[in-house]
């Protein structure tokens, strides 16, 4: 006790006392500012999403379906798009019957079209604008994946991937943009992939379509800046959906296998919440993945040769595993 009092009276002790006296209020102050910032961010996000008209492609399953639930819960008015009318109607009914979000009394619309058919996309855009008058947020989510070797894959399969994952979203975006520009507001979202940043062997057509998507929407973001149109690109890693089951193979047939990586990925609901926050906070880009894929993205840019060596080794291992 005596020693402690004596220490407090030394210049060093007095300085320590002063520091601890200053640090605690500073810490509490910073926490308060942070909490206030978060609260304001939440309020701004809620106001941005409440009653917003949101178009979601690929709403029949996986991430699109979960996005529909998340944006419905946020109070949005939805236009659910896909190829299967029955599934879309079922989802619209399910959402309308959700009593846990009494603030959302909107009637959701459904529009059926195949994204890989350019003519259908153009008339779908007209139908969307007829249904809802304007679009606040377009979520380009629909997509297909691919498994195969480049040598075995016909160009028709490459084209199919590009039509669905690239030309379809590009056409729909171009068809809806003029009305957004006319209103002076709008938000375009592209669900891309980590494979839009790095290329993994035996996924050539998919990686190519996602690289093209990333490039297009990056250009769009810059070009839309004067019109106040926001562009968000979300690049997830593996998500637990039917993407690998629905993937096409080298001859165009369905792959039909639930891959281990996909099964162990993030849940679609979790990723949908990331999409909701990214849109609500008007983020320009979000990478939704674990440490290793994030490191791989950096490695591709910082040390391409090392990255290529890893990918060649991965290709060798996968080929060996398939042969045995
Ligand atoms: N799952 C992953 O690991 C993962 C990772 C990164 C990025 N992504 C991306 O996330 C997005 C959603 O995929 P998901 O994982 O949710 O897979 P999913 O469960 O297979 O859902 C794909 C959706 O796209 C629709 N679709 C496919 N081809 C279409 C076409 N020609 N026209 C209209 N709609 C079409 C499907 O509709 P139908 O019901 O009519 O087939 C379905 O609603 C895709 O862009 C995908 O590339 C997924």
TrEMBL record:
Classification via CDD domains: 11beta-HSD1_like_SDR_c (cd05332)
| Transmembrane parts of this sequence | 20-40
Family annotation (InterPro entries): NAD(P)-bd_dom_sf, Sc_DH/Rdtase_CS, SDR_fam
Q: Which GO terms describe its cellular component?
A: cytoplasm; membrane
A single MF term (Gene Ontology): oxidoreductase activity, acting on the CH-OH group of donors, NAD or NADP as acceptor
Signal sequence bounds: none
Sorted alphabetically, the keyword list is: Membrane, NAD, NADP, Oxidoreductase, Transmembrane, Transmembrane helix
**NCBIfam families, per the entry:** PRK06181.1
Q: Which family does it belong to?
A: Belongs to the short-chain dehydrogenases/reductases (SDR) family.
Its biological function? Putative oxidoreductase.
Protein name as it appears in the record:
Dehydrogenase/reductase SDR family member 7B
Give the species this sequence originates from: Sphenodon punctatus (Tuatara)
Q: Which taxonomic lineage does the organism of this UniProt entry have? A: Eukaryota, Metazoa, Chordata, Craniata, Vertebrata
């Amino acid at each position: 006790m005596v020693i402690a009092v004596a220490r407090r009276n030394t210049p060093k002790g007095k300085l320590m006392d002063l520091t601890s006296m200053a640090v605690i209020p500073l810490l509490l102050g910073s926490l308060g500012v942070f909490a206030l910032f978060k609260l304001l961010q939440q309020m701004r996000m809620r106001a941005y999403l409440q009653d917003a008209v949101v178009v979601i492609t690929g709403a029949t399953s996986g991430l699109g379906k979960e996005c529909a639930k998340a944006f419905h819960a946020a109070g949005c008015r939805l236009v659910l798009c896909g190829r299967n009318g029955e599934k879309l109607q079922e989802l619209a009914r399910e959402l309308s019957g959700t009593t846990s979000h009494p603030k959302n009394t909107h009637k959701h619309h459904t529009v059926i079209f195949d994204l890989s058919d350019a003519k259908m996309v153009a008339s779908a855009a007209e139908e969307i604008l007829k249904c809802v008058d304007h679009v606040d947020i377009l979520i380009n989510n629909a997509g297909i994946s691919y498994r195969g070797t480049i040598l075995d894959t016909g160009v028709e399969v490459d084209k199919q991937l590009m039509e669905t994952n690239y030309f379809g979203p590009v056409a729909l975006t171009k068809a809806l943009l003029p009305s957004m520009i006319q209103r002076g507001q709008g938000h375009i979202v592209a669900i891309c992939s980590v494979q839009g940043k790095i290329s993994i062997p035996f996924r050539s057509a998919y990686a190519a379509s996602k690289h093209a998507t990333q490039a297009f929407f990056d250009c769009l973001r810059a070009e839309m800046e004067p019109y106040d149109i926001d562009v968000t690109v979300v690049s997830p890693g593996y998500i637990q959906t039917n993407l690998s089951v629905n993937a096409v193979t080298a001859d165009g047939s369905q792959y039909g296998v639930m891959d281990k990586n996909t099964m162990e990925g993030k849940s679609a609901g979790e990723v949908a919440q990331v999409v909701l926050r990214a849109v609500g906070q008007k983020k320009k880009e979000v990478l939704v993945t674990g440490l290793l894929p994030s490191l791989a993205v950096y490695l591709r840019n910082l040390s391409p040769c090392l990255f290529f060596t890893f990918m060649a080794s991965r290709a060798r291992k996968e080929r060996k595993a398939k042969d045995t």
